[in-house]
Specification:
The structure is a homodimer of 377-residue chains. The first copy, chain A, is an alpha+beta fold. The first copy, chain A, is built from eleven helices and 20 strands. In chain A, a hairpin with a 2-residue loop joins β11 and β12. In chain A, 49% of the residues are buried. The interface between A and B is large, with 48 and 48 residues. Chains A, B: This is Aminopeptidase.
Chain lengths: 377, 377
């Protein structure tokens, strides 16, 4: 077995999920994640955890959903709910063998099943859950990469010195927690392109140090971002990293905000999809998240939001729902049925300012070597 | 997909497990049983059952058990127990990719884990559980057969007209229920071989019509036997079908009973293993079961007791524990830590009598064509 699989398992069990002796662990294994599951089981044994293994097969799900008569599903079956209610941790090992395994299940059936399982999902989210990814050929294909190339990409993102990164991210978190306003600027590279210059209020917000560990209320491995929930957004922002939403590619999304809400929008492709998102509900026109990517192990965009939004030298803004963990106890924050992340590359001619002080310039943070040098570039 | 997999799934869900709308079903999938699991999921969907899928991987189990420090396992973890306590049915789809997947786990660890999981096993056994087998290359190898040959063998055993077989087995059950004594005789084929002539009491016993359906309290697919719990065994029996017990091959086991207990024993190979079995405890010297195989889809011995003991033209006797379902309510029956099945081929020069009347001669039952003709053969 690739030694990196063992290292991945070690990080997952020790750093991310913080498994302790006697913990009741549910490990959820995708069709293609068998090898990682074997390595994780070894670590769980070593920690004297209690292991139950579920099989998350796209093909089984498809067969079950297509076999089902009508779209009535029983709400929250007792056996599955009881399982999660008695679990301490849920480890999801993603890695399908075919990203389109459930492609011919109708949206109606999919939606009905998802709605019926809502309380079970909630029960799972109240555990110390962690979701991670095992590189499979199907995922490599989805990323447009060779298999070995994709393995390198995934392990570079996952096998980090998370403890050091958590310390560094803590610095940014503290700056955000102490600050009142964030301003993001980026010079247009062509005349046709809009200038990015956008401000948002972050007073009284608590930033989350998303260090890929339940200890930091961070549930994805890899992670590596600091995020908060801004309000009162004003200005224009160009998202120059393409992303796919429900199968549709969005390029160069541009949003203009006034008093916290989108007043103008455009996209070079599939602008109607963008319109659908923004008109979902009132909250869909306001920001729910400002995230600053800090995982420098991620060196390219693969159109997988799990990786893209964590990439160093990027920021992302999400329209829609805000995370409760960023908000003061007495505030409910922005509400919406959607939460759609949009990404801007900050590696050139770009700055992040907090209360008028530049904290990141051209991707370099002010505590990093090269920050001053980056001024001139 | 092989059409027989769909037919297997249909029999499992409809005939064996009798799944109904709203049932909470746990499907336990071995590493090599994915295809059957997909077909079963389709049927479960069609019945509007609630499906949760577990992954029973020998490699994961090995890693977990070997990773474990010491041999202390937590007794009956809550999450797993809660799952089974809230399940209506458990469908185990056996079919590993390597019959020796856990070969290097110590017996001590294995035993400790098994003991710790005892209540969970019991919880599973109180559901409408069914265990079946998906033909894999590993199982074919274990049976000494080519893969396609083994697939034919397994599906011939599973894809039967179970409803008709259940009716036929009911006839034998009724004869056994009404009878007081069973006598089994078989002529020795060589002078060196002992004559089989053994009698046992079955008064007040209830035979089980093991028709591969929870409706008949029968939990294996395939099945196809009628069995009861005899007492007061007297005489000598030669088991001429070889079998493997804990990795050791036993050939031509011969047992002589007096007043219900073994007084003499021999075997052509591994007689010490036989001795170990018989000296486990007091009950290990008495019979726990008389079974009469009636599945004519099984046409050869494969050293897998699941199939061998169900084969038409065979009877099996088990030393050790009796099944409660065969006993009067006020009787506890034979108690033992073991239950070891031993098989005799009844296809030639052999009879089964109940209260002096021949009910099977040379494999033919008295209600079958050829029963009278078989007298002369």
């Amino acid at each position: 077995m690739d030694e990196r699989i063992h290292e991945h398992a070690r990080i997952l069990v020790e750093w991310s999920a913080c498994i302790e002796s006697g913990d009741n662990v549910v490990m959820v294994v995708d069709e293609g994640a068998h090898e990682l599951a074997v390595a994780v089981a070894d670590r769980l044994g070593e920690r004297n955890a209690n292991l139950l293994t579920l099989y998350a097969s796209g093909e089984i799900k498809r067969a079950y959903l297509r076999g089902h008569r009508g779209t009535e599903f029983e709400t929250d079956p007792d056996h599955e709910r009881a399982l999660y209610e008695n679990a301490d941790s849920v480890l999801s090992l993603r890695g399908g063998r075919n990203a389109s395994a459930t492609a011919d299940v109708s949206g109606e059936t999919r939606q009905a099943y998802s709605t019926a399982m809502q309380d079970i999902r909630e029960a799972r989210l109240t555990t110390d859950w962690v979701s991670t990814i095992h590189p499979t050929r199907a995922l490599a294909q989805q990323a447009g990469m060779a298999f070995e190339e994709y393995q390198d990409f995934v392990y570079d993102a996952i096998i980090r010195d998370w403890e050091s990164l958590a310390v560094e991210m803590q610095r940014l978190k503290e700056l955000l927690d102490a600050g009142s306003e964030v301003r993001i600027r980026k010079t247009a590279t062509t005349n046709a392109e809009p200038e990015t210059d956008i401000t948002m209020a972050i007073e009284d917000r608590t930033a989350v140090n998303s260090a890929a560990s339940v200890r930091y209320d961070s549930h994805n491995l890899p992670s590596g971002e600091v995020f908060t929930a801004p309000t009162d957004t004003d200005g224009t922002v160009l998202f120059d990293v393409p992303m796919t939403y429900q199968g549709k590619r969005l390029r160069n999304v541009c949003l203009t905000f006034e008093n916290g809400s989108v007043v103008e929008y455009s996209a070079d492709t599939n602008e109607d999809v963008l319109e659908d998102i923004l008109t979902t509900d009132d909250g869909a026109k306001r920001l729910g998240e400002l995230g600053i990517g800090m995982n420098r192990g991620i060196d390219r965009f693969t159109d997988n939001i799990l990786f893209d939004e964590k990439m160093g030298n990027t920021i992302h803004l999400a329209v829609g729902r805000a995370y409760q963990s960023c908000l003061p106890a007495d505030e409910s924050g922005n509400q919406s049925a959607v939460h759609v992340d949009l990404i801007t590359d900050m590696s050139e001619d770009a700055t992040v300012e907090i209360d008028g002080e530049v904290v990141q310039r051209n991707g370099a943070f002010r505590w990093e070597d090269g920050f001053e040098a980056s001024r001139g570039s």
